[in-house]
Automatic annotation (TrEMBL):
InterPro entries: MgtC-like_C (IPR048640), MgtC/SapB/SrpB/YhiD_fam (IPR003416), MgtC_SapB_SrpB_YhiD_N (IPR049177). The lineage of its organism: Bacteria, Pseudomonadati, Pseudomonadota, Alphaproteobacteria, Acetobacterales. It is found in: Cell inner membrane; Cell membrane. GO terms for molecular function: methyltransferase activity. This is Protein MgtC. Its main location: membrane. GO terms for cellular component: plasma membrane. Keywords: Cell inner membrane, Cell membrane, Membrane, Methyltransferase, Transferase, Transmembrane, Transmembrane helix.
Amino acid sequence: MRFVETVHLLPVLDSIFSLFVAFVLGTLIGVERQFRQRSAGLRTNTLVAVGAAAFVDIAQRLAGDAEAVRVISYVVSGIGFLGAGVIMKDGLNVRGLNTAATLWCSAAVGAAAGSDLAVEAVLITVFVLAGNTLLRPVVTWIERIPVNDATTEARIEVRVTTEPASLPRVRRHLIDRLQAAHYPVADIEVTEHSDGTTEVTAVLVSTTVVTVEIEGVMRELAGHPGISHATWESSTLE
């Protein structure tokens, strides 16, 4: 009857308080996420907070603060797998990073509550809610600022299409022309297509690009006898 031996009023009340704090604070975070129609909403954030609090509280009751600290480290790493499930890549765009970060913070709220750090858990919740609400107008303002292509670091890829027989000559001309325009080449990728054509992709060294200049280079490349098509693509480095 070990159950009877482990039931003590004060420790049980302490666990109830920790789980209650985690439940309430996780719910507050989840309400904001649910209102924004995020994939991880009310129930998910609440369960993450309660679960983290439960693991830490159990470890603390069984083996003390040292074991609780070890469990917290497992919670921090383990929640990463849950966060990865809400991150989706759509082409060059990545969605769900903010939702995953919020889940991570919900786990921090639960860990603090499970460690009987109720004030700290409340403070974390306040800052999480502030980050997800008060910073939204700032993000909107920044995103509305026109991007200056001349000062933005980006990954630049220049692609030309040619025939297999002309590949060595076209590849050499592509590298020489880009270097002459002060766009050093970091890597060259060659892709063979089913229609018999070959695409040569030059990945430029991380640099700034002037649209007018790079478009001029594309026109010159397109006019080369061995090149049937030339284009370029820019993606922002993060």
